[in-house]
Amino acid sequence: MVNGVLVIHNVNQSDAGMYQCLAENKYGAIYASAELKILASAPTFALNQLKKTIIVTKGQEVVIECKPQGSPKPTIFWKKGDKTVRENKRIAILPDGSLRVLNASKSDEGKYVCQGENIFGSAEIIASVSVKEPTRIELTPKRTELTVGESVVLNCKAIHDASLDVTFYWTLKGQPIDFEKEGGHFESIRAQASSADLMIRNILLMHAGRYGCRVQTTADSVSDEAELLVRGPPGPPGIVIVEEITESTATLSWSPAADNHSPISSYNLQARSPFSLGWQTVKTVPEIITGDMESAMAVDLNPWVEYEFRVVATNPIGTGDPSTPSRMIRTNEAVPKTAPTNVSGRSGRRHELVIAWEPVSEEFQNGEGFGYIVAFRPNGTRGWKEKMVTSSEASKFIYRDESVPPLTPFEVKVGVYNNKGDGPFSQIVVICSAEGEPSAAPTDVKATSVSVSEILVAWKYIKESLGRPQGFEIGYWKDMEQEDAAETLKTRGNESSIILTGLEGNTLYHFTVRAYNAAGYGPPSSEVSATTKKSPPSQAPSNLRWEQQGSQVSLGWEPVTPLANESEVVGYKVFYRQEGHSSSEVIETQKPQAVVPLPDPGVYIIEVRAHSEGGDGTASSQIRVPSYSGGKITSAQSTLHTFCTPSSSVTLFLALMILSTYW
């Protein structure tokens, strides 16, 4: 473009169209448009028509496009090789210039030339046509019957022209199989160039249907189908419909389940109620087939209970999924049929007859207004006294009569009723009226100090006055405390003494004892007192001296003097053990001296404690004494022997030299 002029050299058809000129400066812009029409041009072909190769199989139709551009419209001429193509029943030149060949054969192979010509020139294209043998396909097996969980291989074989490549495609029910999303059930195996296998593993019901194999070549595409039938457990029956309800039955119907190619052998009717642990099989009368529906009667249901039902079908392969549950229904009311169980007596207060039983579950109450009838009479009399208990959850009834002596035997039975009427009574049992709480206090209560933290409390009791106590309660408190703040400790059975532990040393305590049973507590005994022992001496025996002679050692130490708040020393305990042993032997002595036997070779560990009525005092420091056969060793050599070991020959030699001076 020069000075706003656009020049187009060698104009051809592709230059035709609308052109727009834009002029602008800092004040704005203007446009101008012009259309270029090509009124005359020599023929030309689009690049994609210049040369092509067409591959077909025998019997197919071949269409070779020839659409030259030019003005005036070019005239079309077709040649095969050097010969002009003549039209006939199979060969025709279409109005747009394309050449069509029907029912292609080997004789139609070759190079075809299309020439377009007008007064301004001419142009041509060349197309090569190759005719191949048609591809055939074999898919086996054609029909297969399997059971859920089995596996199968479908083989697809292509018979095709050796010069053509083939590609295999698999479909199920007309849809391509996605091998990545089928959970590992499908695998395509290409073992040979001309065949492919479809492996189906662990087959499911959903995998039944028509499988297609399509073979694609550059010349043609062929396909075939095989049918796969899968036998499996039945499908779910149709929703259960409740048609008739009585006190203990319900008539139900449902549409049959799909048999999944294996005849259904039975239906199982299941029920669920608020009292059952999940779904449970219910007893039915034989099924009745009525047209397209099946029905059965559930029997032995409990009255006045809510139920929902479902059905499960079974065939020789297995049991299928259950149907959708029916609507919730409630059976009709009825007179109770279940009597209370475990009727027995319970402990109570004096002049009371306490009757207990196991409540009847709501599942067996059979209707609204459920309650209990408690009947009782003194043993050996006629005529029952009856009391109504209106609570369905009641498990006890208490009859009080001041004239009833303790432990009077009664015949007792408990019945049931609801709004529909009275139900059965339980078996008659004999129970006794309450004996009442203990009426007398324990006697001859004594408290004796045992140690710095223990006091023994003992008592006596007369069975005739206490009845049958379950045990005794001991109350105890410090001298400066109120009895209301007393701590308590209980015994069970016929014990007549107890040692209280964990008490404070050198402290005065007060004690009472009273009997108890299920009815309550009896009166407390008279108060008794005792003081815990003083603490043992805190000072340890000191200045231990020892002398060994043969298989024993003589010990001596300074006597221990207790503090004012400590127990008096009544003697001493010498603890000794062989090194490496956990248990100690004990020697008791009243003097600050003792003789300790050392029967076996080795090192002995010895310590001393002062002993008092408050217990053992603080231990002395330990001494280590070696035991040798014969000879005399004093405490002067004890340190030396502590460090003498067989691992040091020098130390052992020095020890032997020192010991030799005493032998």
From TrEMBL:
- Any idea where this protein resides? Cell membrane
Tell me where in this chain the Fibronectin type-III domain is found: 236-334, 339-436, 441-535, 540-630
InterPro entries membership: FN3_dom, FN3_sf, Ig-like_dom, Ig-like_dom_sf, Ig-like_fold, Ig_I-set, Ig_sub, Ig_sub2
Q: Which residues form the signal peptide?
A: none
Which Pfam families does its entry note? fn3 (PF00041), I-set (PF07679)
Q: Which of UniProt's keywords are assigned here?
A: Cell adhesion, Cell membrane, Disulfide bond, Glycoprotein, GPI-anchor, Immunoglobulin domain, Lipoprotein, Membrane, Repeat, Signal
| SMART domains assigned to the protein according to its UniProt record, in alphabetical order | FN3 (SM00060), IG (SM00409), IGc2 (SM00408)
Every copy of the Ig-like domain together lies at 1-37, 43-132, 134-223
Q: What is this protein called?
A: Contactin-5
